[in-house]
Write a structure and sequence with these properties.
This protein has four domains: about 60 residues, no CATH class; about 90 residues, no CATH class; about 35 residues, no CATH class; about 150 residues, Sandwich (Jelly Rolls), CATH 2.60.120. Helix content is about 5%, strand content about 35%. It has three helices and 27 strands. A hairpin with a 4-residue loop joins strand 20 and strand 21. The protein is rod-shaped. About 0% of the residues have low confidence.
Length: about 400
């Protein structure tokens, strides 16, 4: 295997002069067979040595350098603008971190998979056309553009994205806890839009303004989303229509109790009269008792106490009269054959003070007895009763009351 080119011919007599040797050395050439003819190896250790020439001194002998020192010094001090790395670039290990560069600049290229802990760009555009797995975990990106690609996950905890543009791409998940999106425009499905950072509600058919007044009633239509979709007004009259006000519509209506047959017992009681009642009408039809006593009405209060004294007034007919004392007498004389019919009206005069008046006739006399007077009771009236005023019992007839506020 030739190592040195032999381009000088010595004399045939075998004589070698010093000049011949000098010429031989000066014209010596190292051929590539010196390298390609050696035993090949499949891996290079960091301590393997290479011969390297000093380009500034062509007459100097070559120097030896290790593989480690060669790349460590070259990558640290040099700048390579057209480096193409097709294999995976790994930095950092389980026991430490390998710094690639604190101020690296990527002018053109594609990062398909990986994590960049801190990515800062002031004017560059980071675009992706087909990548769907790119992840930016922190840092500040001032201009992030995507035309057709998809950014699957974009996370920012403390960074700020000044401008985020997406025309046809999709941002699947956008998370921001403390960051700020200063300008966001998007088209939303529904009734709400965002344009240049301003949210706008969709309009309805309603004209802005006030509806309703002291003489106009507002009529409002609301949809399922709580929006007012129609608003008009209508007039109303302060005078109710004839027949529109009925006792049932009053807050304190005319109330009729349940009629009771007066055919047994010595007393019939009507309870649960409300405290707002201001007038009570006691009605009777064909009422008869088993004795000749005169039946009477008495007022009660406090859930069961009846006033049995202090009734002032008179019961009289054309020829006879009786002073009241223990109740409101329903006539001036008695007979077991009398069937009495008529009414007595009780009206609240003052607190717990009631006036009364009534007309009662019976089937056995052409005279029509009348009664009038007043009585004070010990509390708010809540019941009234009709009693036989004796040990006799009711034998015929019907009684009922009606009250109003």
């Amino acid at each position: 295997m030739a190592m040195i080119d032999r381009n000088f011919t010595f004399a045939t007599n075998g004589t070698v002069t010093a000049n011949d040797l000098h010429n031989l050395i000066d014209s010596a050439t190292i051929y590539q067979d010196l390298i390609t003819g050696q035993q090949p190896i499949t891996s290079v250790g960091t301590n393997y040595e290479l011969l390297i020439a000093d380009g500034t001194n062509p007459n100097a002998a070559p120097n030896a350098v290790t593989v480690y020192d060669l790349f460590d010094d070259a990558l640290t001090a040099g700048t390579y603008t057209n480096a193409n790395i097709s294999a995976a670039l790994t930095y950092g290990t389980a026991t430490g971190t390998r710094l690639v560069s604190a101020n690296a600049t990527i002018t053109t290229g594609t990062i398909t998979t990986g994590v960049i802990p801190t990515l800062t760009s002031s004017t560059a555009t980071f675009g992706t056309t087909t990548s769907t797995a790119a992840t930016i975990t922190s840092g500040t990106v001032t201009n992030l553009a995507s035309t057709t690609g998809t950014i699957a996950t974009l996370n920012s905890t403390t960074g700020t994205i000044a401008t985020l543009n997406s025309t046809t791409g999709t941002i699947a998940t956008l998370n921001s806890t403390t960051g700020t999106i200063t300008n966001l425009s998007t088209t939303l499905a529904g009734d709400f839009t965002i344009s240049s950072g301003t949210g706008t509600l969709g309009t309805t058919a309603v004209t802005a303004g006030s509806y309703g007044s002291v003489s106009a009633i507002p009529f409002i239509t609301v949809d399922a989303k709580g929006r007012v979709t129609a608003a008009t007004t209508g007039t109303f009259s302060s005078t109710p229509a004839d027949g529109s006000i009925t006792p049932a519509k009053l807050s304190q209506p005319f109330t009729s109790a349940t009629a009771v047959a007066s055919t047994s017992s010595t007393a019939i009681v009507f309870t649960s009269i409300p405290s707002w009642a201001k007038r009570i009408t006691f009605m009777m039809g064909s009422v008869a008792i088993s004795t000749s006593d005169i039946p009477m009405i008495q007022l009660g209060y406090g859930g069961g106490t009846f006033t049995t004294s202090g009734y002032g007034g008179t019961a009289q007919d054309a020829t006879t009269s009786q002073q009241l004392s223990s109740g409101i007498l329903l006539g001036v004389d008695g007979n077991s054959g009398y069937q009495r019919s008529g009414f007595v009206t009780l009206s609240l005069l003052a607190t717990n003070n009631w006036t009364f008046t009534g007309i009662i006739g019976h089937t056995s006399d052409t005279r029509v007895p009348r009664v009038a007077g007043n009585v004070g009771i010990g509390g708010t009236l809540d019941r009234v009763r009709i009693t036989t005023n004796s040990a006799g019992t009711f034998t015929a007839g019907t009684v009922n009351i009606m009250y109003e506020g």
